[in-house]
Amino acid sequence: MLQSEIFPKTGKEPPREAESANHKLLVRAGFIDQLMTGSWTLLPLGWRVVEKINAIIREEINKTGAQEVLMPLLHPKAIWNETGRWEKAKEIMYQFKDHRGKEYALSFTHEEIFLDIVRKHITSYQDLPIALYHFSTKFRNEPRARSGILRGREFMMKDLYSVHATEEEFWKYYEKVRQAYLRIFKRMGFDVKITEAEGGVFTDNNTHEFQVLAEGGEDTIYYCKKCNWGANKELVTNKKLLTIKCPACKSPAIKKSKAIEVGNIFPFGTWYSERMHVYYQDKFGKKKPVWFGSYGIGSTRLMGAWVEVSHDQKGIVWNKEISPFDVHLIELKTKKEGYKAKKVYEKLNENGINVLWDNRDISAGEKFTDCDLIGIPIRLVVSEKTGNKLEWKKRESDKVYFFTLHKVIEKLLG
Questions:
Q1: Which domain holds residue 365?
Q2: Which of 73, 248, 299, 303 is the most buried (most CB within 10 A)?
């Protein structure tokens, strides 16, 4: 893509009200735009990042046997009344009446909707298990929508739901999803801690959160450096678990940290299915409720979380897995013979390498400043200085190398 054509241009100053790194940098670099508090537009660069995040999630979730669907965002009051959550979730749910006086809600989650689908299509144990997921917008009336795109009133989320005939089968799938989540976050470059937390408006059971350690995080977690134990501060406080020793391995290795929640998994048991009458007949003809679980990852939140943990004074530092482009090609005007930027751009594209080519007629300083702000992993420069080679520089390093075009392609594809 030509940088002269990309929308919008970068900004020199962050928004006046911005406090978090992701708010300041994603807006300045042209990845997102704020419509109002808690409501964001994903601009072309931001959408490219979220698409790459979703592709990784989709690939790993498909491996669990789940199938992708798309469920409605507008829900009737009646379905939420079946579980009592119309009243229980009233503070966080956007509720309204239409001109006929009928009451509706905008989706803040889809447990009831999924179970309504399931109960229409199952009769026997032979119809189970079922696992469906979708990427969709969620609406939540956050009282303190802040921290940029980390905490919004509408945001994109992947939510997966599954039902099973037995408790044993449910926990097997729950563990399969847990492992899929760990692969997802590892592929994206995150080091996550799994912590136990309260279920809130979702369930009375404890749940598991996937947390990324970050100074700008809104959660406080405790975790053990010697084993896999971890817990959210609220759970630790309520259950008085906090001691100088790990509750699991007894090691004095408990650490406290601010963190960003990037995913969660919920074991619901049969609570929802009993209230919504989602039953099946087992092989003996006995009527039983299905075992139910829910599993979420915030796609747009992940983009913000990455910027919180990977930036410097100059801008964002993407990795190749979720960067909007593989390479940022900088063209500096040259009189001597050497590589032409157009030739490099075309050759890289021919080899399936995504390139952002800064072809603008502006100073070298402005180009390098924008390059660092946007944060694409590899910078290539074509100039008099490079001659018949290309200047290669990694975003996180100050070291510069000179390679032939052939070598550049080899390194990028290697």
A1: 327-413
A2: 303
